[in-house]
Amino acid sequence: MVKNYMKIQIGYEIVYDCAKTTPMILALHPYPNLETPDCLITIPAISQITNYIDNYGNKLSRLVLPEGETKIFSNLIVNDSGISDLENVSAGQVPVEELPDEILIYLLGSRYCETDLFYDLAWDLFGKLPAGWECVQGICDFVNKQIKFDYYEACATRTAWDAYNEKIGVCRDYAHLAIAFCRALNIPARYCTGYLSDIGEPKPHGIMDFAAWIEVYLDGGWYIFDPRNNKRRIGRIPLAKGRDAADVPISNSFGLNKLKEFKVWADEYIEN
To answer: Pfam families, per this entry (predicted)?
Structure first.
């Protein structure tokens, strides 16, 4: 049932095993609308954790993990509208010459989105669609059918071009492929990662993980599109946004380590 307002309990529990002290950068801070204070807790306790804002406006944390196992966890309550992602089917494409300067970077190729490889294909597939919302939705429809989702086929080095040809992947691969198509058509697009709840979705639910989707710049604003699920969803809480996954990894470590445990949750919070 769609609500006008709700609270969502979000959090994670991640355990790393480091061969020696290891510097790390974490992108685990949700965007605003927090009900409870934002916190990042470690066991054993790490006293020196500093936060900063990166070039894309994301809040990141710097810390050094000790040798051995370290648990990193958080449990928060966020306020949410309770309604699905905004839809604006009349939103039009902005001509390149009219785009704000800070948006232009989202037209360029990046580590996982080889825009130059997609120019001819993008125009062949989508060039006759009306520019704007309908074109982007057409891209998402295509990507959703082109890639078969397989959680166990995740690959850290798979690019948009790889995903197009291999026809398999996870949510980040759907996002990268859709972004590459959009940029090839002169539509600014950026990569987003964060929590995506199963609120309002039929059971059984899949394995909970951090999700990836895209935002596309139309009519002077950013709009959410989700080529993996290809529908408007409730309870989408971003952690970081950038050109592609290379800009916004959940963790970026500078030393040898193993991921021992990984849990994520995003559930409606019902007050007693």
So the answer is: Transglut_core (PF01841)
Question: Nearest CA to 176 among 165, 157, 163, 167?
Answer: 163
116 vs 120: CA distance, rounded Å: 9
Entry field: residues in the chain: 272
Does 124 share its domain with 228? yes
Residue 241's pLDDT is what?
98
229 and 135, same structural domain?
A: yes
Instruction: Based on the fold, state whether residues 27 and 118 are members of the same structural domain.
Output: no
DSSP per position, 117-141: GTHHHHHHHHTTSPTTHHHHHHHHH
Whether residue 36 is predicted with pLDDT greater than 90 in this model: the reply is no
Residues 6+ apart with CB under 8 A from 171: 149, 211, 212, 213, 228
Neighbours of 141 (CB within 10 A): 12
86 falls within a domain: no
What is the span of the domain harbouring residue 73? 6-81+250-268
Are 201 and 254 part of one and the same domain? no
52 and 128 part of one domain:
no
pLDDT in tens, 74-101: 999 999 988 999 999 999 999 999 999 9
Q: d(Cα 102, Cα 220) in Å, to the nearest integer?
A: 12
The Cα 170–Cα 182 span in angstroms is 19
Structure tokens at 188: 């600014």
My answer on whether 125 and 222 are in the same domain is yes
User: How much is the pLDDT for 38?
Assistant: 80
Does residue 190 carry a pLDDT above 50?
yes
Residue in 127, 157, 161 with CA at minimum distance from that of residue 143: 161
The pLDDT, as a whole number, for residue 173 is 98
What was the pLDDT predicted at 3? Answer: 52
Q: Can you name the residues that pair with 215 across neighbouring β-strands?
A: 190, 224
